Amino acid sequence: MTTQTNxxxxxxxxxxxxxxLIMLFLGFSAGIPILLIFSSLSLWLGEAGxxxxxxxxxxxxxxxxxxxxxxxxxxxxxxxxxxxxxxGRRRAxxxxxxxxxxxxxxxxxxxxxxxGQSYLIQMAVGAVLLGFSAATQDIVIDAYRIELxxxxxxxxxxxxxxxxxxxxxxxxxxxxxxxxxxxxxxxGNYIYEAxxxxxxxxxxxxxxxxxxxxxxxxPQVNRVxxxxxxxxxxxxxxxxxxxxxxxxVTYIYSGKVTDLLASxxxxxxxxxxxxxxxxxxxxxxxxxxxxxxxxVHAGVVNKQMALExxxxxxxxxxxxYGVKLALxxxxxxxxxxxSDIIAGVIxxxxxxxxxxxxxxxxEAVKVYGVIFSLIGGFLGGLLAQRMNIMKLMFVGAVLAxxxxxxxxxxxxxxxxxxxxxxxxxxxxxxxxxxxxGYFKLSIPNQALLESQHITVQSQFAQGQSDxxxxxxxxxxxxxxxxxxxxxxxxxxxxxxxxxxxxxxxVKGQVSGLNASQLSTDQPIVFKLxxxxxKAKLDSTGTFSGIIDQQALKNSATKLISVEAISxxxxxxxHSQRHYSLLDSSxxxxxDIDLDPIAPVQLDSKASTELKGKVIKPYSSQWLxxxxxxxxxxxxLAGAAFIAFLSSLxxxxxxxxxxxxxxxxxxxxxxxxxxxxxxxxxxxGYPKFFLMTTLIGIPILILVVWVAKLLREHQTLESExxxx
Length: 723
Prior knowledge:
This protein has 723 residues and is of the alpha+beta class. 58% of the residues lie in helices and 13% in strands. The two termini are 22 Å apart.
């Protein structure tokens, strides 16, 4: 299995072909949505205070990429009224997918996850729609690419598509992060409007893809399209949506069953919980398949049409390669990118946990990383034309998995911390931080009731003498006694010049008041020098508001007050807090970020959990080195793998077969990737990256096995052709 040209000059010249330029722009359109579901969204949710495990579970919103083979046959065969005659089969579906992407991004833009579960659900709906529509766009673009040129040209088209894809990722990744940071949002300083306008901007960027779709021509291919009655197509779509609805409903309601089973059996082991979740997923898929089969068998849809749509493409693949080789090929496709994708799901959360700013992440990951991914992709496409694909895939697999070890070095670049000292009145406690500074401690309410604040101190384990100390005030729940307080601003009530480059989010807590006692429009108001700033109040009693940096810097009093407002517009209770400006010559090596604790209940037998994070520096040089090497390896492996998948695809079933291959490529990694946050929580980042490296070893063995079987298959096919 080789894709070779006559020389290096021909290999370079091929990249100047008009068709390569088309794939560059379509690749750009395909690269926009993916990071809006993964890394950019994970940063948004992280800033909004959503738990790390829940953040990585959002990666499942992109499972549409892994199941696109289910509706790929519809795209291969189903004409779109009016649009197909006007634009052609491929371009019509491409335009529809791009319009749906814009709608999905807008739904996400108008969802503030910090306001509660209903908004988080709305965000999830938008993310799922984005995953579905983006996957549909990929189906059409992959089919368009394969039909656009001969096999020898596919490596070039794959490389330019990958280049455009990565450029799109720069815009949706680095561009989104730079824009969000420019609008003032950051970790501990969450501003919803910044993310809202960032996502609306990304929706506007999708116009590039729409313009490209309207300008390019429909590919010409020797293929006989089936012609059925319009009613047959509608019935086929109906069966598909009934099966999808069955899957969704079964998956949602089976969650109650799995929860009951886990509770009844007292299942706490992560592996067992994953097994239950996998069983839940497989049950939902089986129910969907059963309903689809019964509807076809009952004659709801044309049986011949259903066979040609969903069964014939699979049979063709097994017929061409034989059962044994076909199964081994599918196994390789399903696991080849597992190390890379699992690590990638949590990558931006990882960089954020290492206290790198959005600007640093954007520059290192989304600019340098993507640039070197392009270089790796170009190198992979070039080498794929000059050497055996399987050899290149072996090299790519080695690089993709082994480069994860570099991230362990990035974690170790931060100085280790000593145990954290916690003082509550006369009581003293100790907490042990993990590799990136997270810690938690359960404190008896009896101790908390003796005081009104917690003092937390941290320092390096050795070498450096730097230390940090933070006081966290808290409320005590008192029946019939409303209370309100402003939490420390930037942990120590001191604002540095760096912090004053953007607006500051001020947080606080209110207790003893229910929603009916507060104004619906403006329940909490901050005031600074007579100027009012509106605050958002969540269901836990925590509120936050944005105060302009210039107002904070130029304030004469440096005194922020807060009021709880009644429905009649009167101030029910108030509180205030002073702050100061930090001298520009002063710098802090260590800092501590503490989560607010809920009002302490009077039950002295209970306990309250204190959670926080010590913020310490990590090597930016390590960051750039790790990102550059990892992305170059990923780009090289990706280009080779795309060319490999294209070579396995029959032109008679272009969209369907490639959709099956690309779906399998991401299915297992994304399912496991949804648990990456949970895995990291339990074993830490170093062991997690070591795990992702080790699971790449069996892949190397599989690549060698597939190469051997393909050589044997090609020999047999040659013998059949020879007289």
